[in-house]
Amino acid sequence: MDIVIELQLDDKIAVNRLKSLLVCLDCKSVYSASSLKNDDGLACMKCKSIRLERRIDASNLSTINRRISEYHIQIKSLHEHYKEKVLTINANLNADQVITVGKSAKKFVTGVIHIRATFNNTFINVTDVQGNTLYQTSIGAHGFSGSRKSTPYAAGKASESAAKVAVERFGMKVVSVVIRGPGFGAEAAVKALQGCGLTVTSIAGETAIPHNGCRLRKKEKSIEYLKRLFYVL
């Protein structure tokens, strides 16, 4: 599970919405009274029936308050369990506005940060869990040049900049780190990520390693082989 959406709603608005719920007696569909108002009056959107009545449990105020209190108790444990993946949306608006806000508030609570550390530079790429690039930077992009590009301090500054963008712009809280390359800036970059409030769940090393070594040197011709060769000639 990558993200958990929480719709925050005031208790008074929740009570008013529950009290306005209507049930179709023919198809048992549930509607809000405000969503069914039209020129022809109240009618079911599925079967077009006008046999609508208020829900039994929605007419009792004590029942509604008890359900709301139970909801707050149950949601507390869930919120603590998924606190690193929660995306909160204001549900006090109407349905169309909530959908619009939800689409515009696209956030990536979890992500992946790729660090490629070479001996002369360190490249940092922020992606979502599917691998789509969201932001990328490097030591050279932050004004470091020459021998300073290979220092751990410069790698930490570049990583700190990427972490701030991931947190402030994309709302990331939990990331996994993938490290490639033999450079010296990888460790400093990971420490900078943790210092900016990101929770690093895993660190994977994907540096390419030769599996069979370099090609062997060509063997020299032996003296016996040369003697046989000249004897034939």
From TrEMBL:
Family matches, as Pfam families: Ribosomal_S11 (PF00411)
Organism: Araneus ventricosus (Orbweaver spider)
Any one cellular-component term (Gene Ontology): ribonucleoprotein complex
One Gene Ontology molecular-function label: structural constituent of ribosome
The protein's name in its UniProt record: 30S ribosomal protein S11
Gene it is expressed from: rpsK
InterPro entries: P-loop_NTPase, Ribosomal_uS11, Ribosomal_uS11_sf
The keyword RNA-binding belongs to this UniProt entry's keyword annotation: no
GO biological process, one term: translation
Assigned protein family: Belongs to the universal ribosomal protein uS11 family.
Keyword annotations of the record: Ribonucleoprotein, Ribosomal protein
Domain of life: Eukaryota
